[in-house]
Amino acid sequence: MVTFTVEDQEGNRQEIEAPDDMGLSLMEILKASEYPILATCGGMALCATCHVEILEGENELGEATDAELDQLENLPEYFPTSRLACQIRISPLLEGAVIKLRGEDN
């Protein structure tokens, strides 16, 4: 299990515990935790509606892919630590991370 913190649009933080042995994406865990993630494209890095900002732990996650960067660069507002939740796999690299929701529905 991996534990990380999610900050919602109001600034409220909640610790989330997720299994790291099922190949799930951060987007899937956020949706299962009933956060308002649209994920219109179903996790294909085509819509950016699962946009998040990594507030802590971004160095452990590695660089965004070119497809991910293409989507992020089309957003009205994105940050150096912006990522698409659908492109982040739940793994021990997420342990202790702080993730802020930034998607279109937020």
UniProtKB/TrEMBL annotation:
Q: Keyword set for this entry?
A: 2Fe-2S, Iron, Iron-sulfur, Metal-binding
Q: Per its UniProt record, what SUPFAM superfamilies does this chain match?
A: 2Fe-2S ferredoxin-like
Q: Does the keyword Cell cycle apply?
A: no
Pfam families in the record, alphabetically?
Fer2
Q: Which GO terms describe its molecular function?
A: 2 iron, 2 sulfur cluster binding; electron transfer activity; metal ion binding
Q: Which cofactor does it need?
A: [2Fe-2S] cluster
Q: Which residues form a coiled coil?
A: none
* GO BP term, example: P450-containing electron transport chain
Q: Which InterPro entries match?
A: 2Fe-2S_ferredoxin-like_sf, 2Fe-2S_ferredoxin-type, Adrenodoxin-like, Beta-grasp_dom_sf
Which residue ranges does the record assign to the 2Fe-2S ferredoxin-type domain? Answer: 1-105
Belongs to which family? Answer: Belongs to the adrenodoxin/putidaredoxin family.
UniProt-recorded name of the protein: Putidaredoxin
Specify the species.
Cecembia lonarensis (strain CCUG 58316 / KCTC 22772 / LW9)
Gene that produces this protein: camB
